[in-house]
Write a structure and sequence with these properties.
By secondary structure, the chain is of the alpha/beta class. Helices cover about 35% and strands about 15% of the residues. The structure holds pyridoxal-5'-phosphate (PLP).
């Protein structure tokens, strides 16, 4: 049976990437060692991390005045690192668009000398849309933080706001390499790798140089400037995760780069949204203009029926379709590596389920 993995993260990886990793597992480039066994100071690993960085720069067209950092601690540690590095003694502005935004906000609020203000929120609408944003913000603020794609709620920013000298900082964990945003519209971008980049354990941060902290952050590992100065090799980085990320970047390049893969993402998402639209049983809880291309929640409106659908789906090899525990229903995460055939198979299954369960 073919297994289609709709997991929101850690998520499906491109099969060719796993095959290369498999073929190189016991002997990386004639070294007689696996990548996991290489010193992070070896020339073989240095080539891996340098290739990973230059491929990501090429794919995202990252300008030279941005540093690319390979870190640990997940996107969740960035919730603290961003304010620690950028907002000491200042005010930080946040847009609240869902569970991950809320965690970012509470991490910033936990810091002593940082003032946190929420400038827009869709919480009253149950996060079913991206809220309307203010035209202007306090120009003394350190940054405006947004979550470009809300993995749990299934919303995304179609357009990135611009606030003059106040940089936009983005948690791009679930739609990095799957959008048409421009890096220069952001001061900082960060992403946990386990959605669209590679295995868990690696976090990518892209930081505009003028935003690097001038004063040391109390803990060296949390200090962007120090990490940048050491080319992400201040301590042992997650070497194997960086190697897989490099292979994924090569694969994305082969798919026509970010533009090529995003076109495929649009096709996959459109197919599923059209099927939901056509259905008399399933509906999308998300407002049309705010819909995500990567995480697509849908519900029947009847919890028992949702449960029956999820159970029947599992039997057919559709893994991890259950919606997040905070939202319920179903959620299909269609990351870059998720195949079009999987979307087609899901739609056929949804139609069959609808016929058998009173859709008319
Ligand atoms: C998954 C996710 C996170 C959490 O990432 P970790 O690497 O587990 O800390 C944060 N933000 C968004 C948008 C996510 O999708």
């Amino acid at each position: 049976m073919t297994i289609y993995n709709f997991s929101a993260g850690p998520a499906v990886l491109p099969k060719p990437v796993l095959e290369i990793a498999q073929s190189e597992m016991l002997d990386y480039k004639g070294s007689g060692m696996s990548v996991m066994e290489l010193s992070h100071r070896s020339s073989l690993f240095e080539a891996i991390i340098q290739d990973a960085e230059s491929l990501l720069r090429e794919l995202m067209a990252i300008p030279d005045n941005y540093k690319v950092l390979f870190l640990q601690g997940g996107a969740s540690l960035q919730f603290s690192m961003v304010p620690l590095n950028l907002a000491q003694g200042k005010k930080a502005l946040y847009v609240n668009t869902g569970s991950w935004s809320k965690k970012a906000i509470s991490a910033a609020k936990a810091l002593e000398n940082i003032e946190v203000e929420v400038i827009a929120s869709s919480e009253e609408q149950n996060f079913t849309s991206i809220p309307e944003l203010p035209e202007t913000v306090d120009q003394k603020a350190a940054y405006v933080h947004i979550t470009t794609n809300n993995t749990i709620e299934g919303t995304a920013y179609a357009k990135i706001p611009s606030y003059g000298d106040v940089p936009v900082v983005a948690d791009m964990s679930s739609n990095i390499l799957a959008n048409d945003y421009k890096v220069e519209d952001f001061g900082v971008i960060y992403a946990g790798a386990q959605k669209n980049i590679g295995p868990a354990g690696l976090t990518v941060a892209i930081v505009r140089e003028d935003l690097l902290n001038q004063e040391a952050v109390f803990a060296p590992m949390l200090d962007y400037a120090l990490q940048a100065k050491n080319n992400s090799l201040y301590n042992t980085p997650p070497t194997y995760a960086i190697y897989i990320a490099k292979l994924v970047f090569e694969w994305v390049k082969e798919q026509g780069g970010v533009a090529g893969i995003t076109a495929k993402d649009r096709e996959k998402a459109q197919l599923l949204y059209d099927a939901i639209e056509k259905s008399n049983l399933f509906k999308s809880p998300v407002e049309k203009a705010s819909r995500s291309l990567t995480n697509i929640p849908f519900v029947t409106g009847d919890e028992a029926l949702d449960k029956a659908f999820n159970q029947a789906a599992l039997v057919e090899g559709f893994e991890n379709l259950t919606g997040h525990r905070s939202v319920g229903g179903m959620r299909a995460s269609l990351y870059n590596a998720f195949p079009l055939e999987g979307v087609e198979a899901l739609i056929a299954f949804m139609e069959k389920f609808e016929q058998e369960n009173g859709g008319n």
